[in-house]
Specification:
- The protein is built from 24 helices and 21 strands.
- By secondary structure, the protein is an alpha+beta fold.
- β20 and β21 form a beta hairpin.
- α17 crosses α18.
- The termini are far apart.
Length: about 675
Amino acid sequence: MNRLGEATSPYLQQHADNPVDWWPWCPEAFDEARRRDVPVLISVGYAACHWCHVMAHESFADVAVGQLINDNFVAVKVDREERPDVDAVYMAATQAMTGQGGWPMTVFAAPDGTPFFCGTYFPRPNFVRLLQSVTAAWRDQRDAVRRQGTAVLTAIGGAQAVGGPTTPLTADLLDAAARTLHEEYDATHGGFGGAPKFPPHLAMLFLLRHHQRTGDADSLETARHTAEAMARGGIYDQLAGGFARYAVDATWTVPHFEKMLYDNALLLRVYTQLWRLTGDRLAARVARETVRFLAEALAVPGGGFASALDADTDGVEGATYVWTPQQLTEVLGEADGQWAADLYGVTADGTFEHGSSVLRLARDIDDVPLEPVDRIRSALRRARAGRPQPARDDKVVAAWNGLAVTALAEFAVTADALGGDGADSGGTADPDVELAAELATATAAYLARTHLVDGRLRRVSRDGLVGAPAGVLEDYGCVAEAFCAVHQLRGEGRWLDLAGELLDVALTRFSADNGGFYDTADDAERLVTRPADPTDNATPSGLSATAAALTTYAALRGAPQYRAAAEAALATVAPVVARHARFTGYAAAVGEALLAGPYEIAVVTGDPAGDPLLRAARRHAPPGAVVVAGSTDQPGVPLLADRPAVGGVSTAYVCRGFVCDRPVTSADDLTAQLR
């Protein structure tokens, strides 16, 4: 009996009809393994994973393979996005055993959960031989199997342990981190490393903040060039916006077509900040299109954003997105078809499979009249909409939705401050600002209403119903940071109060003795080891996200103890920042905010909408600055307490490290204080 039919995870539901007798992750599965005296097969993946689909089709949908599994194992299927704690433990084991990791992840464990053999994708013949070998080893070489498991536990216990040296995250370390990134930078194609190439959004956020604090031109150019290369490449959807998970090549040409919420949220922050710092029209366009992509492709009815769009369409990767010259001509006609092929780099040989091409921007469109481009894009989008579409993983993940809320709020205040630069609004209200602000507020409200249960966060929800998995540290950090962003956007005290409640839980339940954090709470389900990974990867680590939220909350509340907690957390990762900046990007970005102040900017005004002081504050705010606006002593906004309007006109108060400059009433004076 397959037990996945009632799962909230779309990934688990994809396997509900397998002949494998799957269990969800639960204590009862391991009890069953003890009763039967068989190993546990733990298969970990996620709904948008291409090779997960391949292994499912080849092996898990096969009746003979299913029978082999059912006869000799208890099979447990795990959605890594729903249970990142389980994924983290067994990924550490997989990396310790094989030197690499990935999904699908295939783990064989004793009934107590101790892993003794790990791998990733196995073709069907190899997988069948592996199942037979593990069965024989468990039956005939039990002592050796258990010794192997003990060795793996020892290895991952050391890797996951919280401890080691700590040191303050200083300007010298951040300077060294920037130099490391410059040395690793691909000056030809942008980004870092070769194929496959992932969007380095967290490193880019750090570099933009580093440039703003230090004036370092190399940091700005590294971020700018990488942003341009990605936006012109096939990794970016040239018709509908949105970034794919990564490029399979070093030139950003051919993507792995899945689109993840977290990538697009973090890249929205990058392009928004690049636009703010440089006025770059391409950055403005991409930021606006990413807001629309989130709204059109990932917004879930009832609240929140879906996790991902699948890489495959009807089992074929990229089928929705690629084009041949003939297909362009069929949609656009001969002349426009040739023009579009030249614009988007569609050739007879193709850049993808079977002579098809991924659309990439081969010529500049940001400094020419947009009418022909818009007309062609619209026609191609309509034609593409008639094709089969990729599936959507519509579960709502708390942390990733927190990232989206922060990005949308930052876009809304930035685009408003820039007064329509890069827009085609003709001087009217900016619809993208309104859309971003509405989405940020509605999603924050959904998280507060649905995911916050009895003062604790839950990890996932679907169809408006919250799931059972407890929130991990990244959920608390990302959602708390999001609530701080909405507090600044809306000037409402409830968001700051909610952020404080989440951070108090993080400090109480997740803290380690050395100032760092574990990824799971002290009262969470006990796994074979307690995960604690401080490094940033596709998303900020729980430690970095929580340090960011603590830093922002301390500035908004005027509470130095939260700043001290952020500094202590960053001190645990500081020793590796200079050497491994690509994997500590968000920690370094938070460090830049702390070195800059962060500035606390309060604008006392009776009408924040369009106030020139508020626009100047948001446009020129130093790294990590907090900005609030409203009336004197506005309830729930500590930064407005006891701050009158000088002479009865709008007044700005600028503080840094809880020490304030004189109040100013002109945008020029405020800008001077912020530079």
